[in-house]
Amino acid sequence: MALADFLLAHAPFSLPPHLYSYIPGQTPLSTTSTVVSTLIGYLVVIFGIQAAMKNHPPQKLNTLFQIHNVILSSGSLLLLVLMLEEIVPIIWKEGLFYSMCGEGAWTSRMEFYYMINYYFKYLELLDTVFLAFKKKPLAFLHVFHHSATALLCYSQLEGKTSISWTVITLNLTVHVLMYYYYYATAGGAKIWWKKYLTMMQIIQFVIDLFIVYFGTYSHFTTAYYKSLPNIGDCAGGEGAALFGCGLLTSYLFLFINFYFQTYNYKKKPQGNGKANGHANGKATKAE
Q1: pLDDT tens, 37-63?
Q2: I want to staple 222 with a disulfide (CB 3.0 to 4.6 A). Which of 95, 167, 229, 233 is the partner?
Q3: DSSP secondary-structure letter at 57?
């Protein structure tokens, strides 16, 4: 029995149609006004907490933070397995191009998994709430990435881009490790591979861009520039495809900038012990 069938067979209740199929206007968070209002509310909340915490000591909230990260790490792993269980047979039977670009690759189960992944993005907004209560800096990359990714997932559900699973499965793989890292370090563990986690995120975006630019090129050449070489159409809304390309491109540059700012330090000239100790202490603390 497939994992999805097992979970459905043992589910304690059945869902109404708008909760397992994406129905604009009926499914929660399925209208532009609702999504934009929610994300504006997110910004108001986190910066409101930041302002309120100015005269208060930072809150650790370690237990809640660890529970949050266990849910996201294990949830990402389960969703990754379910998506691969659905898409791998399609790849095997129909080929990789069809699995990425064929309309038939947007199955009812994949749509439901895309919805779950979309709702995960709102749960991930709590990452920033924890940062605000801990009085950690709210970096532009963090706030922009969290809010924009929810918007990205919404746009792909609206556009029914069959290629979505390629980006999502890579992202879920990174999140399994990333949220485990946050869980472990919150408990006091010393993790040596933080730098490589950032490298994984950068590699993820490079692969993402290769795939989505290929799919977008394939669609536009098939639809409008038939004289150019292509191997067939790629299903999905044009606006969703272009928005995805633009946003993922911005992510790549932002994460590369973050990597160099965080891990690459210019060596200070050799001087007295005090200067060297300060430089070494800074590098060790940052890593």
Answers
A1: 999 999 999 999 999 999 999 998 999
A2: 233
A3: P
